[in-house]
Amino acid sequence: MDPLQCAIETATEAGRLLRRRTGELSIGEKSARGDLVTAADRESEAFIVKRLLQHFPAASILGEEGSSRVGASGERWIVDPLDGTTNYAHGYPLYCVSIGYERDGAMYAGAVYAPVLDELYAGQHGGGATCNGKPIAVSHNPTVGQSLVCTGFIPARYERNGANFARLSKRAQAVRRDGSAALDLCFVGCGRFDAFWELDLAPWDVAAGSLIVREAGGRVSAMDGTSFGVEDGSILASNGLIHHEMIGALGSEDS
Ligand code: IPD
Ligand code: CA
Ligand code: CA
């Protein structure tokens, strides 16, 4: 099966499963405050991994909820079965399923499905990015002052990003903190946000979304402008035009 098609179909079905489960949540507290994990996260991941392995039995899996395995092929699926768990637990509609497909260490395809919005974002290396099958592109805003930018942070580590948040609040038209990194990246890809940055992210938060931004014509780097890798934690994604200005505005990482 074509990996992009597999990612699209699996993300869509898992997202519908999550939406059906809204309201029957059993919420447990993971290691840090605000890091909620629900029965739905695990159910979604079990569904996704079973489906991916049906079609790609030799692939490796990196899944947030513990389904990781090392396969025999050079393919790896990177899965966030529910990105935006806190939003989901509170009935805030911005959550999604994110599935990225890597081949020989490079992102090749990805899909992000937000079931309440019914928006399916997809991207394939060299093939562009789409939302619900229609091509998407990043915005054309040329300055941070005209831009709507977004960030995120783990609540217990707010201080690491607090000064950046304050600086951009003064400089940009406005800053949002929407609570789903994968969807935040798709919103850069479709031009709703002009930029998104965050520290301390995991590969499953950024794998599919970073590819979608690039395929939509945007730029992705680490927050200091150096090259981006899904394992690196920090990300700055933008429409490209404001990338340099964003790097300057973010300055050095707070510790
Ligand atoms: C979180 C979300 C959030 C980001 C956190 C992530 P989760 O993922 O993407 O926006 O700020 O850093 O951990 O826990 O909802 O899958
Ligand atoms: Ca996540
Ligand atoms: Ca998650």
How would you summarize this macromolecular structure in one to three sentences?
With 255 residues, this protein is of the alpha+beta class. It contains 7 helices and 14 strands.
Descriptive overview:
The protein is built from 7 helices and 14 strands. It has a 7-stranded mixed β-sheet with strand order 3-4-5-6-7-8-9. It folds into 2 domains: 133 residues, 2-Layer Sandwich (Fructose-1,6-Bisphosphatase, Chain A, domain 1), CATH 3.30.540.10; 106 residues, D-Maltodextrin-Binding Protein, domain 2 (3-Layer(aba) Sandwich), CATH 3.40.190. The chain is an alpha+beta fold. The protein binds D-MYO-inositol-1-phosphate (IPD) and calcium ion (2 copies). One calcium ion (CA) binds next to β4.
- Rg calculated over all Cα atoms: 17 Å
- Helix % is 25-40%
The portion of residues forming beta strands comes to: 25-35%
Biggest β-sheet: strands ordered side by side in the sheet: 3-4-5-6-7-8-9
User: What is the CATH architecture descriptor of the largest domain?
Assistant: 2-Layer Sandwich
Total helix count?
7
Q: Could you tell me the mean pLDDT?
A: 93
The residue ranges in which pLDDT falls below 50 over 5 or more consecutive positions are none
Number of domains: 2
Q: Main β-sheet: number of strands, strand sense, barrel status?
A: 7 strands, mixed
| Euclidean distance between termini CA atoms | 45 Å
CATH class wording of the largest domain? Alpha Beta
